[in-house]
Amino acid sequence: MDNKRNILSGYRVLDCSIAMAGPLAAQRLGDLGADVVKVEPVTGEWQRHTAAGGITGNKVNVSFLSLNRNKRSLAVDLKKPDGKALLLDLVKTADVFLQNYRPGVAKRLGVDYESLSAINPRLIYVSISGYGETGPYVDRPGQDLLLQGMSGAMLSAGRDGEAPTPAGQYLVDAVTGYTAFEGALAALLHRERTGEGQLVQVNMLDAITTLQMQELSVFTVGAKPQTRSAEPHAHVYIRAPYGAFATSDGFIIVAFPSLRLLGELIGEPSFLDMVDETDSWSRRDEIFAKTRARLTAKTSAEWLALFKANDIWAGPVYGYADLVNDPQIAHNGTFVEYDHPTEGRVKTPGFPIRFSKTPSAVERGAPLAGEHTREVLEAAGYSAADIDRLLSSGAIAATEEEPACVTAP
């Protein structure tokens, strides 16, 4: 793999995380050129065996494949003395160590920050947890939907009295992953300036809370209560109409237009004398209901064309098929396609950051468990005999089949 021109070329990351948040953060570091070694159990990381959507793949399920490109896999049993010693040896030359063990597990394994920083004071140690490393919720499961519910965000949209609707993404996991990615980069910059490593702690509860900077400030500073409407308004702190509305053949989004202009376009005379900054709050349910009733008269395309011509903010409601085939998505090159040695031609979301001189690329597809065990250990100075001994003891595992290199378009 030749990534000499990539921004993080020359940095090595030991990714000891599972599930989504940690692997996503590590994948982003790999996308920027870091050598990410995925340190996983000899039987493979948990996500290899838990397929989102039930899509198992050939040898690599889609869940794992989507979160582990641009990584090498080292399969090792950290509960065996030889396995732990091997990891500690790799820490000596690592730049970033990333883990999302349950609080207390890293210390029991002897891979906590204090232990590893004693070996390598320049190490950036990123620790991800559900609720924090200590405190009353330290033993609670840090699962995405549980944190969505606790975040307060679900009660900022929808109908009063009805069960809230969760986000259609693994929202808290994704936000936490990007927060950890940001923390790792900032700590690396600090190290470049000072030479010192440090502990970086990220938790899911803080990540999803701080994401709502504006909403929570309206509540804490402006003292405006979080009050849902009888109609399925999309956000308690944005004036009506604001939400998804049915048309004669589908759905569209309408976002807080001028009430007078909207009334003229949809044929709703009661809107003509309303004042945007007062009536759109005090008469929110009425405005939503009347907008909904009027919009069923035309198709989505007809309304969108009319609204665009009159500078009203409106847009389509896409499914994934629509999104993937959108011309702007195609223009942006949002998705990448490459050949994976066991899964065939793969199309997945690509890179959200574009660099003019150091573009990201898919250098490796998601690895098989232990695919790079020999390669990683040989580079670390282990002899073939040492590796064979570790394999025989069960301290490590290696995939004997050597898949062809991934081919990016």
Automatic annotation (TrEMBL):
Any one Pfam family match given in the protein's UniProt record, by short name: CoA_transf_3
MF terms in GO: CoA-transferase activity
InterPro entries in alphabetical order: CoA-transferase_III_domain, CoA-Trfase_fam_III, CoA-Trfase_III_dom3_sf, CoA-Trfase_III_dom_1_sf
Superkingdom of origin: Bacteria
Protein name per the record: CoA transferase
Keywords per UniProt: Transferase
